[in-house]
Each structure stands twice: as structure tokens, then as C-alpha cells.
Amino acid sequence: MKSKFLSFVIAGSLSLACLSYISPIKTQAISLTQINIPELSTSSSDETFEAFLEKVGNLNIDLLKDKFSKETYDKIYQKISDKYKSQNKSYSEDELKLRSNIYASYIFDLYNDESNIDEAVKYLGLSINDMMEILTSLELNLSPFDLELFKFKFTSLLTDPTKLSGEDSEIYSLIEQEFVNEFKDFKPDDMRGSINLFWAMSRINLSKFVLEDRVKMLKNIPIDFESFQDLKALTISGISDEIINELYDVVLLRNADEDGKKFWVDLLQKFINQGKSFKDSINDIVNRLRESEEYKTLMGKNLFN
124, 103 in Cβ contact below 8 A? Predict the structure, then answer.
């Protein structure tokens, strides 16, 4: 898969009055350079989408007992039906079966035809929250890693920028504008898919993961570890404690200890009081974390090989 580089700046200014809550739009000036942005595959399936839907609609659930139980499938069917009913959408029994089969096929990875199964997920017309609510209702004993990975995949597939609001909408729009300006050779569908992928990566939350799952999650995204850190620094917001917590999550791959957090919160405050920009303050802290013995030891473990 080819890669391109994204370089863009979110510009702004930071006053001392803004320190208690740092907004990624109004107060941040982060430059994100040399991030590998994967182009979506342009290869097409040999099977038409219509033929794929017909195949999925004819799926014999009784032959898939090694994948999931009939009870699980019945829950999917019921939850899918309830979702559409709550949205005042009426479908025939056959259509509800097709849509339930699509959901089951995606969750249990029944097909290798990525382009068609991804398109089928969009065909459902459900939101990211809808998809996650159905998933959690199935009581599959999924780990935090599994849930976050599904959320990441749903976000990259289903994000509708017209339904974002506030800072989310502003950040998404800036990402979109930069892609349009920098990658004019992208096809429209690839452009939207790449923007959504970048957006989905910025939404990943590692705070509830053990180290092993943090590494697994990062291996499932198409940018390198330090590029991910830069991406998270770009979109970071909140009070100082929350900012330092997230930097620990994405640089040292652990939750912040109280003494360490106090040190970095105080240092962030000191930088701001000295008139250093938010961009430079965050970059300084990230670089210092990367220069720490703990980070060097972490990288010495070759976790991402």
C-alpha cells in the first residue's frame, strides 16, 4: 500500500486564561509533519455488490455454529429490528434477515471480501453508536481492546461529518481541508475514506488497556508509533491533568502515576507562564518523555516488530 505524507498546521493562540481548558482549535498550534497517510486500496472485488448481498442474504446460519450460536444470531436479529423500528424504518422479514446476516458476517469475520463487506456495513444505515450498542448487547465477553478495535473500524467506515458538532466538527473540517489541498490526485471515495481513517485513529482511547493490548491496538493502525503520538498531540484537549494523562497513555503506554503527572502538569504550567506556545510546550513535553530512560527501555523491547 502506497503512503503519502501529510503536513498541516492548526493555528491559534494561548492565553493564560485558557490554561484550565485547552481547546485543540482555539488555543492550539500543532504542526503534524511526515505522518504516513495510507491510501485506501483501489482494488475492486470480482463479485458485484448486488451478488454479494444475495450471497449474504442466503447465508445458512445453521451451518455456522462453530462461529456463533443461534441465540447470538437471534439477538442480532432482534436488536437490528428494534433499531430500525425506533427510527421508523419498516423492512420485510427477508430484508431484516439480510441486514442481520450482514452484521453477523462483519462481527464474526465470515468474508475476506473487504470492499463488499465494508460497503454492506454502510448499507445498514446504522450509526457508530448503533453498531456498538448492538455489539455490547450480545454479551460476547469482548475485551476493552476488542471493543476499541471495533469502534475504530466502525468510526473509519461510518463517520458522517455532517453529524459532528463543536470541536469534533472543526477538527474534522481542518483534516478534510488539508487532504483536499494536499492530495488532489485522490479519488473522492478514497479521499473521504482516508479522512475518516485519520479521524478514527485520532479517536482511539488507550487509557483502559494493559500494555499488551495497547501494543496490539497500535499494530492495527496504519501509522507508526511516534506518528500516532503526534496525531494524538494534535487533537488533545481538556484540563492539564487530562492532557498529561493522555500523553502518558500514548508515549509511555501506561497510565500516569500521581508524582509523574504532577511534575509534568507543573512543567506545562511553567512553560505557559514563560510565554511558550502551547504547540512548543506540548512538543517539549513529548520530546522529554521520549528522551526518558523509561521510553528508551520501552522501545528497546521491540514491541512493534
Answer: yes
Residue 254 pLDDT exceeds 90: yes
* Residue 188 grid cell: 473522492
Any idea where the domains of the chain sit in the sequence? 3-42+158-300
DSSP for 18-57, please give it: GTTSB-TTTS--EEEEEEEEEPPP----SS-HHHHHHHHH
pLDDT of residue 45: 62
Handedness of CA 5, 10, 11, 13 (dihedral sign): negative
* C-alpha grid cell, residue 89: 424504518
- In 3D space, the residue among 161, 235, 150 whose CA is nearest the CA of residue 196 turns out to be 161
Find out whether 206 and 217 touch, Cβ atoms under 8 Å: yes
The candidate with the shortest Cα–Cα distance to 105, out of 94, 95, 123, 120, is 120
Element (H, E) at 5: strand 3-10
Cα dihedral 260, 204, 128, 96 in deg (nearest 10) = -120
Task: Evaluate the CA torsion angle 271, 36, 290, 257 in order and state its sign.
Answer: positive
pLDDT digits (tens, 9 = 90+) for 261-304: 999 999 999 999 999 988 889 989 999 999 999 999 999 998 98
Residue 142 burial (CB count, 10 A): 15
pTM: 0.80
